[in-house]
From TrEMBL:
It is a single-pass membrane protein. GO terms for molecular function: energy transducer activity. Belongs to the TonB family. PROSITE patterns: TONB_CTD. It is found in: Cell inner membrane. This is Energy transducer TonB. Keywords: Cell inner membrane, Cell membrane, Membrane, Protein transport, Transmembrane, Transmembrane helix, Transport. The chain crosses the membrane at residues 21-38. GO terms for biological process: protein transport; siderophore transport; transmembrane transport. The keyword Transmembrane helix applies. It comes from Carboxylicivirga sediminis.
Amino acid sequence: MEVKKSPKADLENKKSVFMQIGLVVTLAIVLIAFEWTTTDVDASQFEMVEELEAEEEIMPITRQEEVKPPPPPPPPKVADVLNIVEDDVELDEELDIEDTEMEEDTEIDFSDLAMEEEESDDAPVFFIVEDMPEFPGGEEALRKYIAQSVKYPVIAQENGIQGRVYVSFVVNTKGKVTDVKIARGVDPNLDKEAIRVVQAMPAWKPGKQRGKAVKVSYTVPINFVLQ
């Protein structure tokens, strides 16, 4: 049997070539299919962003209102009341005007005022003044008076008690000894005798500050010694 096809139109010779091209194309499509990646876009995110942007744009601007102080209360109304008095009304009260002018020969006695100031109980008590109080005759006379006036208590002598008692007192503006108390004692019997001796003191020469008699605190030691 004669072959009618020409050798150029025979496809059997190119069968292997077409098979290889088909395989290459198929492999290329498979590789592209595996390598292809898709990203899912969530449309709700865009909606939320749009809503937030819309809210930010629509958000109103608020301002704090200034609190105004309440208005002050109105001043009280004062009713003007006029009492009309007739001219012919007589006044019951009479105004007595005394002549207070002093004559040149008038003398004023300030001694009473000075005595009141000196005798006031509220006068301060000084501890150191310009002129300290002085016992009549001075310090020597004071020591002599104490030595002659002290009578040693018998109980203290029997118990052998001796020591130095400090007695504090105040010489007032008249020189009298007041507010006698024990500053530092030894024995109740000795303390009692020391207070008795000081209270029996004669009047002192009062202390003075700036030429004025003042109250001054004074302390006297009295020694009790057994022989």
